[in-house]
Amino acid sequence: MTKDNPDTGIFYDLLDNYMPARIKAALLRLEPGRVKELEEIRLRGALPLMGVFAGYDRFIGADGQLFNGHEKALRVTEKELNELFYRLCDQSLYAYQEDIIRGFITLKGGHRAGVCGTVVYQGDRITGMRDISSVSIRLSRQLKGCAEAVFPSIIRNHRDVYNTLILSPPRCGKTTLLRDLCRLISQGTDFFSGLRTAVIDERSELAAMYRGIPQNDLGPRTDILDGCRKSEGIEMVLRGMAPHVIVVDELGGTRDAESVKLAWNAGVRLMATAHAFDLTDFRGRFGVGNLAHQEGFERIIVLGINNGKRWIRVMNTHGDELDFLVQGSGMPADFHRMYGLGTQNVGQAGREAACTLKTHGDPCQP
Predict the structure, then answer these.
(1) Under a CB-based contact definition with an 8 Å cutoff, are residues 333 and 149 in contact?
(2) Distance between first and last Cα of the chain
(3) Which of 100, 145, 268, 323 could bond 314 through an S-S bridge, CB–CB 3.0 to 4.6 Å?
(4) Are 54 and 65 in contact (CB under 8 A)?
(5) What is the pLDDT of residue 204?
(6) What is the dotted CATH code of the domain comprising 6-138?
(7) Rounded distance, CA 164 to CA 42, Å?
(8) Could you tell me which of 43, 33, 42 has the C-alpha nearest to residue 8?
(9) Mean of pLDDT over the chain
């Protein structure tokens, strides 16, 4: 591993900027192949250091070795956890109070640190957190180009896109794909003129704003509302920014659905994601399920895992297949073609993805 390698450079920067010495030393001893697969670093007070890799988790020893059991793993001390927390906050809890209240801190480089501890209330409002008990750092790796093969399928013409919805179980890559679609829509391509784009980044995952600067490239025509609820943010950008396209992550309840309809009534296109195994599953969701119809989302992208291989499928609102991403799209473990699958099979493959992730199966381990 070298700091000049883009696949591992962000890992070195994260360790240099935030990690206590003993934790940093253990993580530096990870094998290069494991570093490329590393997605999260989980630290819990008086408990073993753990890494979440591509589809599985392992405990980490002081020598960088990985273990299924926790007996030989490096144990994080309370002092190390507190040191890490203060470094994440740049030694100023007051400056990061609003982030802490939301349960996570966005770091330089786009990484995201989730925080748990004792929640402090004032009346019915959360005002802070003390006695930090665990920190989970999710590594940010923007995969530029991963959406290039699917991009032509969502293009209406050289100046317009279809309203597009990306569906998958958790951790199948829908946010990564949405981020790259946003970049392509904003900057344009040889066959598509870039459009003014607004991102409502409620969980600070798409842009990963750090002191007002996006750590991920969402394109040169993109305006970002960070940490704003989708239902409020959509109305705000409609009033003030006049976007052609609005991008949101993880549609949920009725208020989200009403705001999406408001944007459509204003003639603005929507790019969004939602948790669902397939189109049928999404249509059954309370609040947002009625958005997937002929006058609503016109392109449905479904992601999943089949036999340990990631796949992607593009459909219209009737469930008819339109296109596949080719192998080698740049997504983790690559996306692979799936031939001859009906809607029921797609749903089953999505459920397999959820089961695979739930049990943390490691396809590389015996």
Answers:
(1) no
(2) 26
(3) 323
(4) no
(5) 85
(6) 3.30.450
(7) 34
(8) 33
(9) 85
